[in-house]
Amino acid sequence: xxxxxxxxxxxxxxxxxxxxxxxxxxxxxxxxxxxxxxxxxxxxxxxxxxxxxxxxxxxxxxxxxxxxxxxxxxxxxxxxxxxxxxxxxxxxxxxxxxxxxxxxxxxxxxxxxxxxxxxxxxxxxxxxxxxxxxxxxxxxxxxxxxxxxxxxxxxxxxxxxxxxxxxxxxxxxxxxxxxxxxxxxxxxxxxxxxxxxxxxxxxxxxxxxxxxxxxxxxxxxxxxxxxxxxxxxxxxxxxxxxxxxxxxxxxxxxxxxxxxxxxxxxxxxxxxxxxxxxxxxxxxxxxxxxxxxxxxxxxxxxxxxxxxxxxxxxxxxxxxxxxxxxxxxxxxxxxxxxxx
Length: 340
Fold this sequence. Notes:
By secondary structure, the chain is an alpha/beta fold. About 40% of the residues lie in helices and about 10% in strands.
């Protein structure tokens, strides 16, 4: 079947039922983001570019935009999510555009691509800046015409959908460096939405934390749990460099560890001197400076990533989550930093 292994290629979602329910934001900055999403939801085919640090909620924003756009038009409209960093470079175009039988050696049957599967709904391209330049050019051509050909095909296929792209990188800097096409950036950034980091909207922490507590307590079949004032104070004092994703992970662990009906500050386990943790002391993991000069940025990053791995006892998935980046991106960075 064409759909065999589909779960490994994409996520089809019509709502956020698999995760905690949405929480009404307290911060003015996030309320402004939601207002912008409501505005653009009235134009179902307009591309949207979401930017913000890892873990800030770009996928959730894309899902919310999808729901706002299609709930009154087509409740069954597909939401197709793809992590561009996880696509093998030699298969990107086949994954996006599909292929005909015999298009290449292993093409034993026709397969529709992600764009075709998203027709009539939303295609969410996460980590868009990780796309190879060749594939960026083909994506731009599709966006301009809303038509494409499957690999090995002769027939043009027309579709209508909204493309939502997201990145945690400085896209403008990548354009200047020649790593991201300027024309594709401008084509995607018709409607640009910047999501603020959690440290800049701490007033949202209590609502999010309590929502996560309720969600995970129900998931692990625990009786309703409360979050103690001391535990909440500890969460409020932390900068959450991994943003909402890190807060979610911290709370999930606390729910599992809590022995009684209330989560205490003891169950709120944060990385020792973790990223963004307040305090002016020189971190123990920081490489020594030479002649009073600060160490090179790459040396600092290498030391910090190694420190996070040590904190999580070599558990790479947990370290990637704490850093607020995807697992494939984490593995790629380990190779670049030459960390075993």
